[in-house]
Batch of 2 targets.
Target 1
Amino acid sequence: MKQPRPLADVLGENLKTVRKQHALTLDEVAKETRSYGAKWTAQRIAGMEAGKVSVTVPTVCTLAWALSAITDNDVHPADLLRSDSPVEVNGDFAVGGNTIAETLEGNVGELRIKDAADPDRTIRDVVDAAGETASAWGPGVTVGDIRSLQSRIGLADRRAADRLGIDVHTLSGEAFRRWAMLLSEAVDEQAGPGASPQRKGHITRKLEAELREALDRGDD
């Protein structure tokens, strides 16, 4: 498997390719970007091509606009972020080379296993997470429960788990056994539509206290 590349390197390589294809100088590209409010120099463009400039939405859009104008060809932001190699996104998370470009083109949705830079590792992580979930939720959990868990657990559940000093799988398992839903969902149900933050906070504290008591007793 190819090693993931920093996104800045991908942008730099694609920028340089377009510039060379149209026999443009660094200064010509820099001057064109000034039409879009950028105060870039030839040295700035060279830094981008070397992968030394952070990739931001304004940077990519400005380059796309400038290159489209100066080459008289459509250069889309997605074109500047395509790669034959996996691309680093956050920390050690990387995706396949065209995944970012496809997302910018409007193909937004849950990432597929094949979109990951290392599909085998992703599958192992999913299986491990499912095992932790099944263990925490108990024998009553169904395959459907496990499949929907990741999309259902929210920030409120994670924060509650932190306050209780337990992992979110244990918290969710206990909540599932008590209410057949997550803690955050139980709060929303008991608070009712349009509940104020104060009311939701009160119910959250009440339900957390119930969970803490159950966990201290070791309820099954």
Target 2
Amino acid sequence: MPQLLDVDGSARTRPERAARTRSGRFRAAWRAAHAPVAGVSPATRRMAYAVQLAVLPSCLWRLPIVFDSEAGPVGRMYPVLLSVLSEAVAFTAFGLIARWGEVFPRWVPFLAGRRVPTAAAVVPAVTGAVILTVMWTTAIVTDFLDVTIRGDAQPADFPGAAGGLESFWYYICYTPLLLWGPLLGVLAVAYAKRRRVTG
């Protein structure tokens, strides 16, 4: 296979160069999606990462259901899709610190390069923060009270009612979700203040 010299003079095959180019593009996309704009404090940046990390344990906790032989195809796909959707929604917190949350990216039809209206980011973020805070606080509190959100008694097979190690891991993985809404709310307020200054 023909070898090519890299910029640093090292010889690489075409597949190696292609893999290196792909990884370079991935790193560039990662930086563009996560890099904070000017005026974002290190604490605010850490909060955006904390949103993702608060959601991750519950996503991982659900995945063993995929290997449950008693769950049908829909029952196996549901936790995967819910986990992917949860992390995708949590990722939008980076829009409150990164450039793509202030200027529409070039791949957005008709809006590419235009400023994102402040309200278009703040209103959904604050609404989401309130909904997530109420939803997860209610879910965790009712769970500790051994009732469902509707007030019915918890079923015997509910993870929080199982006791022992199963309940322990369930609470360890789901309790961080209490942080999702408040963190998102703080990020929304910081975004609104920054946009008021920068225009």
